[in-house]
Every structure is written in C-alpha cells, then in structure tokens.
Amino acid sequence: MFKGDRLKKLRIDKCLNQQSLADMIGVSKSLISCYENGKRKPSLENIISFMEIFGVSSDYLLGADNLIKTVSKNETKYKPLTNEEVLFIEELRKNNLVYEVLFTEPKRGAELIVKKLS
C-alpha cells in the first residue's frame, strides 16, 4: 500500500510544495494532495518518478522497510513490515506475558486489548 505520509515527508524535506512536485511529474496539485492523504494511489509511472526525484526505493514508498520470510510445509511467503511494526514487536517481546498471549492466542490477545481500550 502506498504511504502518502512518506511522500509528504520526502517532499517537505526536499523543500518542495505540492505544486512544484506536481509540475515535476506532470499531474495536478490536487492529485499530489490526494496521494499524500491516502485518497488516491499513484500509478506505477508516478511511483517511479517519486523514486527518481527523492532517491528512495519503491519498497520505502510502499511501506516495506523490512521483508520477513516465513517457510512452512515447503511454502515460502514474504510479508513486508514497516520499521514501526518491527519496533512494536520488539517492545512486545520485552513483556513475556503479553508476548506469549498475543502470539499463542492472537485472537484472544486482540480482544483483551480492545476491551481494555474501550
């Protein structure tokens, strides 16, 4: 999934306004706003343009900071995780009880969290 918040940060860090970025890739300012706010997803061509302009990978723009490989019964799957998700998991691991509940009984763990937050 395209991460509009990352696009916005890159644009601001490069001292570009939405109109300037829009002019660079040949779209409207409102479309850049839609990308940044998650209302629209950019085309592959526009993602490539963002990669070239900002010097980042498509993985970064799509929120895949880390690629986790899982293997089970001769089936290999890959799951992208953001740095924030990895940090979340690391923090969970610091509390053995919470970690154990969430990973042995994920549905029950999620229900307990929702109940506690409600």
Structure description:
- The structure is a single chain.
- With 118 residues, the chain is mostly helical.
- It folds into two domains: 4-61, 434 Repressor (Amino-terminal Domain) (Orthogonal Bundle); 66-117, no CATH class.
- The chain has eight helices and two strands; from the N terminus they run αααααββααα.
- It has a two-stranded antiparallel sheet with strand order 1-2.
- Strand 1 (66-72) and strand 2 (75-81) form a beta hairpin.
- The protein is elongated.
- The mean pLDDT is 92.
Features of the shown structure:
12% strand, 434 Repressor (Amino-terminal Domain), mainly alpha, elongated
Order of helices and strands: HHHHHEEHHH
Number of helices: 8
Number of strand segments: 2
Radius of gyration: 19 Å
List segments where confidence is low: pLDDT < 50 over at least 5 consecutive residues. Answer: none
How many distinct domains? 2
Write the layout of secondary structure elements.
Elements (H helix, E strand, L loop, with lengths): L3 H10 L4 H8 L3 H8 L7 H11 L3 H4 L4 E7 L2 E7 L1 H11 L2 H9 L1 H12 L1
Antiparallel strand pairs: 1-2
Helix pairs in contact: 2-3, 7-8
Q: Quick summary of this structure?
A:
The chain is mainly α. Helices cover 62% and strands 12% of the residues.
